[in-house]
Amino acid sequence: MENVVALQPKERVRQDAAPIATIYRNLGTSGGEQVVARALGELALTMAGLASQVRAHEMGDLTRQLRRLQRMAENLGMVSLAVVAADLRACLERADTTAFAAVWARLLRIAERSLAPDRALLEQLDQTPF
Q: pTM, whole model, 2 decimals?
């Protein structure tokens, strides 16, 4: 067992600043800040809801929730989060449980890095069995 190495993948998170810049440009600093904060809060709640569903093995509504997460991430310029949410939907559509588990773990890593300031979300995600 001396040759076993525990890997700790580090995800590189890609973001596009243009959508948030557009929000700030259209609404001003104060209005933009409110809209972005609200959108990030909704995204965090959606991610926490997904984690809860996966923990409970309630997969019925998961595709719709992942599509919602993808749209929200795209609207905020969170490229990596949007792409991985789409990948996870593809795993569900193919009923590939092994791929689902791997991509779910990747989605959790991306969400953790994208939403790191939201400690409550991180605590909920850490409790997910996949």
A: 0.81
